[in-house]
Write a structure and sequence with these properties.
alpha+beta; Peroxisomal Thiolase, Chain A, domain 1; five-stranded mixed beta sheet; 9 helices; 30% helix; globular
């Protein structure tokens, strides 16, 4: 690299993290029975031992609030110190109002605490972290809570063998402040390729609704996994090269990789493409499945809990998303 000038860091410090899972543990054996398949079929196809699905009485915003309070408890943080909440869910709980306002209702933060949604599908959390860091550096806010929650089970099309097996529900949260500039975001890229916009979608909305002849399948998740994978895989290498170049780093400088837990094939692809030791990659897919936007922050929380994310280390968040988007973020802790 000809330019040896150290790139600027976007200061942000993670104070704590937390997670929450809904109450129903669903094993792959249970799905074998439900789908009338031989024992072991679902685990072999999905790569998942078990995942969690919400009971009918559980809401996305309530589970998000549980993750937020777990983060408060883990960091000994006063909820009254939060002056902004960002919801980073891939799918909103309802069309209006924002999911952030629903989380605020359950979380019991001080009245008037502002909240808004950031949505970049499965990559929503890194995007929200970048937004939060940018806002903190304007001094508009001092301490921000970011919460990602998704109930993918509510949109499963059980007639689709490709998608019905891989999804789990959950939520995760982090609390951030600006910090002293020794830690923060060293590289960030997000690219969207709308030629893949129909490869991964829930069609219901203002274009497809009851007045315009929407059918029940419009409210369920639809995906052409092979086309998503081909498009994302063709662009991911170039994106990661650019993210690392932006930070004047190589993969050798990255201590931990936190990928979106997209699928069994996707996790294997990450390991093969990066050619880093398996221990560097946080893989919770087998016990959580694909939790949409909650996947990356839940895996990041796992990295903190297991000691793979510690002060002074570098973590790279990478993922793909509907759109189709690919993204990466390098965070120095």
């Amino acid at each position: 690299m000809s330019d040896t000038t150290k790139p600027a860091i976007l200061p942000v410090r993670i104070l704590s993290s937390g997670k929450a899972l809904p109450g129903r543990k669903v094993t792959s054996h249970e799905l074998d029975v439900r789908l009338s398949k031989p024992s072991g079929w679902v685990q072999k196809r999905s790569g998942i031992a078990y995942r969690f699905h919400a009971h009918d009485c559980e809401s996305q915003s309530d589970i998000a609030a549980q993750a937020l309070h777990d983060a408060f408890a883990n960091g000994g943080i006063d909820p009254g110190s939060i002056d902004l909440l960002i919801s980073a869910s891939g799918v909103m709980e309802q069309s209006l109002p924002s999911t952030a306002s629903l989380i605020l209702h359950h979380a019991g933060l001080r009245p008037g605490t502002p909240g808004f949604d950031v949505n970049a599908s499965c990559f929503s959390f890194p995007v929200a972290l970048h937004v939060a860091a940018s806002l903190l550096n304007t001094s508009a806010y001092r301490r921000i809570a970011i919460v990602a929650s998704d109930l993918a089970s509510r949109g499963i099309d059980w007639d689709s063998a490709e998608t019905s097996l891989i999804f789990g529900d959950g939520a995760a949260a982090i609390i951030v402040e600006r910090g002293d500039g020794t830690c923060g975001i060293e590289g960030y890229r997000l690219r969207t390729y709308p030629e893949g916009k129909a490869y991964c979608e829930i069609r219901a909305g203002t274009l497809r609704n009851p007045r315009l002849g929407a059918c029940p399948s419009d409210f369920l998740f639809q995906m052409d996994g092979k086309r998503v994978f081909r498009l994302a895989a063709s662009e991911m290498d170039g994106l990661l090269t650019d993210v690392l170049d932006d930070a004047h780093l190589s993969l050798d400088h990255i201590d931990t990789v936190v990928p979106h837990q997209a699928s069994h094939l996707g996790m294997r692809h990450v390991a093969e493409r990066l050619r880093v030791p398996t221990g560097k990659i946080v893989d919770i897919y087998k016990t959580h499945g694909n939790q949409v936007a909650a996947s990356i922050p839940t895996a990041l929380h796992e990295a903190f809990v297991t000691g793979r994310a510690q002060p002074g280390r570098r973590v790279m968040l990478i993922g793909t998303a509907a759109g189709v988007s690919v993204g990466g973020l390098i965070l120095k802790l």
